[in-house]
Every structure is written in structure tokens, then in C-alpha cells.
Amino acid sequence: MSTPAPPTFPTSRAAVDAAGAVFAAPATTGSTNADLLAVASEQPHGSVLVTLDQTAGRGRLDRSWSAPAGETLAASVLVRADLDDRDRGWLPLVAGAAMRDAVAALLPTGSEVAVKWPNDVQIGGRKVCGILCQVAADGSIVVGAGVNLTIPADRLPTPTATSLAVEGASGAADDLADRVLVAFHRAVLEAVVALAAGGPAAGSVRSHVRSACGTIGQQVRIELPDGTHVEAEATGIDDEGRITIRDRAGVSRGVAVGDLTHLRYA
Question: Is the pTM of this model over 0.85?
């Protein structure tokens, strides 16, 4: 990884360096995920690339991620671990739960913070963070996160978005970014260790993901890859990481990929 511009996250850098990983904080970049994917084979497990100015970020389903300079965190973490295919599939969900915990710790008591399956973090039903996991050429996985830090209410990208500042978090953008990143990085790496260990440790991680998921118990609409959709009740997350649903005919099944919306009936 090339020498970055002076980082603005000193605590995060210390935490990452202490874990024996590499930390880079460019002043601006197109995409932290793309940058880390390009050099993944040369970097150790747990390495981080982070910025407050990402100009060409992407989300799930190749959607663009609007990220005003200086007001949003873009961070990517490299995961290289001996995980089977099922546990690798849990990484996006694990990352969502890790970010949910990091965000909740910064907000006033009583804030409703949950994960919309598979990994959008919401506060009171509005999105504050998106997660995108991508596989590098060497088989490692880059876990990317974009967090709205200090965007004011009148400049949020969509009516269904929010930011930490809007929801009552205190601090400047670099301070909030630092605190989010330290907690997120630690939680993701600890969960990866647990998944690799298997047994009760891995079971505990999956249980935590389920407890953080606000989709379970909701009426949802899922746009499926074949262009069809289904409206159903979300009943859980199975051992493959799929959202389980029961449709209006009472038929239950798991869905691995889809664009999910929570339905709110009057």
C-alpha cells in the first residue's frame, strides 16, 4: 500500500497497528474497497483503508453511495481467514451486526438501532450505514462500510437516510469516525476468529447477528434476482445466513439474495 496522506484517525491507527495490521488514510479516494482489493494480496489480515472523502463508492446491487466530503466515513477491512463457504457467507451479516453495535454506542439511550437484512444499519428505520463485501483475487474478503457521520437533516441523500449527528451523536466527524472504526474493526476481527473456531463460539456469533436483525418479525417485500417479488413475514435467519420468510399462502423458505424492504401497514 502506498504511503498515505497524513491520517486523521490517530486512535484508530494505533488500534490497527497494535493488531499487527496496516492502516492507510488517504485524504481522498474513489473507493476504499477498490483500493484495498487492488493490493489485497500484499496486505496482512485486518488491514484497513479509510477516508472521509470517497468520491466513487458503491453499495449492494452496484448502487452508488452518496458521500459528502468530510461528513461520511468510508472504511474497508481486509479479512483473510480459514473459513468454510458457509461462514464466508456470514461475513456481510457479521459486519452489519458489528457496525450496529458501534453505532449504538454513540447514540442516546433508547435509540432504536438495528440491522435490516442483510447488513444495512438503521436508526429508527432510517439508513445510517451500508456494508459491501467483495472477494479479492487471492480469495481474501474486503469488508467495506459507509457511515453517515455529520450530514445535517436538510442534506441527507434520501428521505430514508439519517446520520449520527441527526440522531444525537456528539462530536466532530473525525472523532465520530475514529470511534466507529475502532469498535467496528475490533468486532469484525473477533467475530472472524469465532467463526473460524466453530462450535459454540461460532454459534454465539450467529445468535448475536440474529438478535441485532430488525427485519425478523417484519412484513417485507423482496425483489428477487429473476425480476419477481414476494411479500411475506420475515421469520428468522437460517444457518446459511438466508432470511427465512413465510408468504401469504403459509409457505416457508429461505432467500439468499434480494432487495428487501420493510412494509409498514396502517
Answer: yes
